[in-house]
Design a protein that fits this description.
Largest sheet: 6 strands, mixed
Structural class: alpha+beta
Number of domains: 2
Number of strands: 16
CATH class of the largest domain: Alpha Beta
Bound molecules: ligand 2P0
Strand order of the largest sheet: 8-7-9-6-1-16
Length: about 350
């Protein structure tokens, strides 16, 4: 029987300018643009195999880390699969010899090679790998930016994992979402000296999910309105320039400021959302002190912390400074470095 299969992997991305808030929850259209770095550590990836065959029993099926998950009607996964099938139909309409895969059931198996409970975003890499693997299976001609339109509807931050390196998710202006997509600001080779240290402060599942937390912020925070109108737009321009110029001090200043702005709007939500804990705040103090000492000695900033919807820290630093950062973090937090190889480098999603 004819059976087609494609396997790809996509890495986690960590935002420097944070996505927090939707203006359209059905289409996943954000209230502000965001910008992230795609990590490429081999142990922070989702690997997805998609296959299709005319002989499969009816109905699409999905397994996550070996456990079957329901593909709920009208849910995000189903929306992504329907959009990918539509693009496959266009391929089949143009080429009558192309197998009619769009009519066949799909089997999708996805694995994260990092613990989902570690509090690191798995939806971003997972949905990016899912969309990318089916695009390869279907041999779609669409660009990664066009594919990001579909990945975005699986999970907002997933659209940024379609690219390696430094990636912007442009919020767009249209109501149909056709211009809310990811673009690469710079590839991994542009600035390979930037590394990321992941500090797992807690591997407990987070109390407030991003999806519900951000909509509570949209509904109740007055500070969010200031952030999306006046704070994020100039930062997007400034951080893109800093990346182009490889200006670490500006990159670090904006990354830390935006993490703090994001957690401030969480606190300004009713009821307030607390993602940071005492260890997170202690890490902030240590990095601020390292940077103060560096500035006092006439150097630039040496490190930037950033926190997502949980207490775990990601610290960006240049490769040359990373041994000192790791040593300092280890001295202050001897138990906290759980990951065997904490250095992240930048990468492209790779087809295998
Ligand atoms: C980000 N986060 O930019 C921000 C920073 C968390 C804090 O993107 O509802 O899991 O699936 O679109 O993508 C988390 O949000 O939410 C997120 P949905 P998602 O990385």
């Amino acid at each position: 029987m004819a059976r087609y299969e494609a396997t790809v992997s996509a890495p986690v991305n960590i935002a420097c300018i944070k996505y927090w808030g939707k203006r359209n929850t059905a289409l996943i259209l954000p209230t502000n643009s965001s910008l992230s770095v795609t990590l490429s550590q081999d142990h922070l990836r989702s690997t997805t195999t998609s296959s299709t065959s005319q002989e499969y029993e009816q109905g699409d099926r999905l397994w996550l880390n070996g456990r079957e998950e329901e593909i709920s009607k009208g849910g995000r996964t189903e929306v992504c699969l329907a959009a990918l099938r539509q693009w496959r139909r266009e391929v089949e309409d143009k080429d009558s010899a192309a197998p009619k895969m769009s009519e066949w059931p799909l089997r999708i198996a996805s694995y994260n090679n990092f613990p989902t409970a570690a509090g690191l975003a798995s939806s971003a890499s997972g949905l990016a790998a899912l969309v990318y693997s089916i695009s390869q299976l279907y041999q779609l001609p669409q660009t990664p930016s066009q594919l990001s339109l579909i990945a975005r509807q699986g999970s907002g931050s997933a659209c940024r994992s379609l690219f390696g390196g430094f990636v912007a998710w442009e919020m767009g202006e249209r109501d149909d979402g056709a211009d809310s997509l990811a673009v690469q600001v710079a590839d991994r080779d542009h600035w390979p000296e930037i590394h990321a240290l992941i500090c797992v402060v807690s591997d407990a599942k987070k109390g407030t999910s991003s999806t519900s937390g951000m909509q509570k912020t949209v509904a109740t925070s007055t500070l969010l309105q200031h952030r999306i109108k006046h704070v994020v737009p100039p930062r997007m321009t400034e951080i893109s320039r800093a990346i182009t110029a490889k200006d670490f001090t500006t990159f670090a200043r904006l990354t830390m400021a935006d993490s703090n702005s994001f957690h401030a709007v969480c606190l300004d939500t009713s009821p307030p959302i607390f993602y940071l804990n005492d260890v997170s705040r202690a890490i902030i103090s240590v990095i601020e002190e390292l940077n103060r000492a560096a500035l006092a000695s006439g150097a630039g900033l040496v490190a930037a912390y950033t926190f997502d919807a949980g207490p775990n820290a990601v610290i960006y630093a240049l490769e040359k400074d990373m041994p000192m950062i790791v040593q300092t973090i280890n001295e202050f937090f001897p138990q906290s470095l759980d990951f065997p190889d904490p250095f992240g480098v930048l990468a492209q999603p790779s087809a295998r």
